[in-house]
Design brief:
Layout: H1 13-22, H2 34-38, H3 40-44, E1 51-54, H4 62-68, E2 72-77, H5 80-89, E3 94-98, E4 106-110, E5 115-119, H6 127-130, E6 133-138, H7 150-160, E7 161-169, H8 188-195
Parallel strand pairs: 1-2, 1-6, 2-5, 6-7
Antiparallel strand pairs: 3-4, 4-5
Length: 196
């Protein structure tokens, strides 16, 4: 099939946490992603002061970059280590507080208030907790979620965005029979059926 043997593959939360603990984070880009710079105008569409969502954010340097431009950034990441590394690597002071609606979750917010990172499963979020967004930078989230969870993921993202929002998505193209993922192969046809 088009997605090869990946359909049933499951990567657990523990495995992701282990990747961070072991420093096995080849997906992290120290210099930021060149495609965000290239398509930034598509994401912002001439607008300023946007709320931008980073699903499965890790410690993406683009969060600071966009916040420095005057946007509000909200990320979600299961690894507390990744979140803390983000703040320390950018020398950003932050405060940490529990998220009452989500058992065990924490929210880390820069003292300037323009970067809020939720440490929990992305599926625990809802617009009643995080509000709605004008833009989404999905650099490694859709390709990282387990293939069987894609519909759930897409439905969540759709529920979190405003009507005139921009969704910037990076995927990878390869023969899924030769690589078990992640990143997983998401064919363009599936992206169209997920997001319409």
């Amino acid at each position: 099939s088009e997605v090869g043997s990946q359909k049933e593959r499951v990567v657990t939360e523990e495995e992701w946490l282990q990747k961070w603990e072991m420093g096995n984070i080849g997906f992290h880009k120290e210099q930021g992603h060149p495609l965000l710079q290239k398509y930034l105008d598509v994401l912002l569409n001439g607008r300023s002061g946007l709320r931008i969502f980073f699903p499965l954010c890790g410690k993406a340097v683009e969060m600071k970059w966009l916040a420095d431009m005057g946007h509000s950034v909200v990320g979600v990441e299961v690894s507390e280590q990744a979140v803390k590394e983000f703040f320390s690597e950018h020398s950003l002071p932050y405060c940490e507080e529990p998220v009452p609606e989500i058992s065990g979750a924490k929210m880390f917010q820069s003292t300037s208030g323009n970067i809020s990172l939720y440490c929990c499963s992305i599926y625990d979020l809802s617009s009643s907790i995080v509000g709605k967004f004008d833009g989404v930078w999905d650099r490694g989230a859709l390709v990282a979620v387990n293939p069987r969870d894609r519909q759930r993921y897409a439905s969540l993202i759709i529920s979190l965005v405003e009507k005139n929002s921009s969704y910037l998505l990076v995927t990878v193209s390869y023969d899924p029979n030769k690589h078990k993922g992640p990143p997983f192969y998401v064919p363009e046809s599936e992206i169209k059926s997920l997001f319409g």
